[in-house]
Amino acid sequence: MDNEHDMLKFLVNDGAFGPVTYVSSKLDNEVDKGTQFASVVSFLVLIVNNGFEDLEIHVVLKRQHVSNEAKDMFNSDIAFKNEVIMYTKILPLLQAESLNLFPKLYCTNQMDSMRCDQQQILTFENLQHCGYMLTKEKIFIDYEHVKIALMKLGQFHGLSYLAKRHHKDTFFKITNELIETKFTKILPEFKEMMRTCMLRGIKPLMEQNKETDILNRVLRKLENLTEVAQLLVKPEEPFSVICHGDFCRNNMFFKYDNSNPSETKFFDLQNSLYTSPAIDTSFFLYMNTTTEMRDKYWDKFLNIYWESFSNTVPNLEFTFAQFMEHFAKRAVYGYLPTCFFLPMSMDIEDMDVEEFSKLPEEVKQRRMLTCAGNAGTKAITDIVEHLLSKHYLHKFLEL
Questions:
Q1: Residue numbers of the domain that contains 48
Q2: Domain ends where: 130, 163, 193?
Q3: Which is nearest to 39 in space by CA: 61, 60, 64, 66?
Q4: Exposure of 206 by Cβ count < 10 A (0-12 exposed, 13-18 middle, 19+ buried)?
Q5: Residue 135 buriedness (CB in 10 A; 0-12 / 13-18 / 19+)
Q6: Could you report the per-residue pLDDT of 289-325, keeping only the tens digit for each?
Q7: pTM
Q8: Which of 64, 180, 314, 386 is within CB 3.0–4.6 Å of 76 for a Cys-Cys bond?
Q9: What 3-state class would DSSP assign to 66?
Q10: Shared-domain flag, residues 205 and 353
Q11: Residue pLDDT, tens place only, 26-56
Q12: Using an 8 Å Cβ cutoff, are 153 and 308 in contact?
């Protein structure tokens, strides 16, 4: 297909939008395109005719990156398949429509990879024309946004826990189809880049002689990134749930009432996985809260999540104290993607993913070491310091 309009025309003619005919389509320039890393997203207004009148449908067209380098960096083939499994199998089993938490999926050609010139395409409703919007803050969000996001996350996790309880065999059969995308199936050169990012936040504390024994032991354990990632995401009963897998501000829309967030919706389920709830909570809280907010509200945030989760699941099989012990051993997971994405997001120079993926490895590593300068280094070093102060790194070493 030459462009987005040809793709939409193909999908309409293929019946993806029901018994309508294609009239025209145009780019939607009235939306916030947000931050795009793992896929290429276009916003369009589709005009169709149902035999009586023309109708407007505002859609989001999501495609893989063009280059093989970018596809490999984000495990795009697996990621797109995960999202299809979530929408067609798992969300219906969870009865997730009761939460009204995800945008509508109009169509997918994932089931036939030869369609649309072998490009994998997902088409969603555009929530920005339903009163939802991205936060004005591009990285760090305020207390009210964090609160509503954690409340809804707790409910979503709770639904998956209930599905596991009531439909155990079906639940595990389907969830076993999901594949971890971020760390366990990555190229050797990307592992080296991740080690560079991890060391960037740890090295300043070692230079200050802050708990160097613990930090050295953590670094030794992190040398085998694939093994550690598998350890962190390995389900442990009874705690595990279906996680979003990339739960951060970039993948949330909010609706407002007098400038206060009143509703939220989540999107981008490419990295979803049956795993520890710490995978979602730790990444979100480390990626999208400031050092000051963590110092002030950390325990309260975890209580907000827990209350929402436990209120969704009657007769829960474990206590808050047991949950916190489980969380403490896996909280370091939040640092792994954050040490890569946070400085990149803070950098004043936008990064083109296609161009970045084709750079020589030494150039990539140098770029990741200097993203956002001293502010980027301090932001991720503060996270390591928080992990130390909460004894999460000590607990991680017990795994």
A1: 1-130
A2: 130
A3: 64
A4: middle
A5: buried
A6: 999 999 999 999 999 999 999 999 999 999 999 999 9
A7: 0.93
A8: 64
A9: coil
A10: yes
A11: 988 877 666 667 778 889 999 999 999 999 9
A12: yes
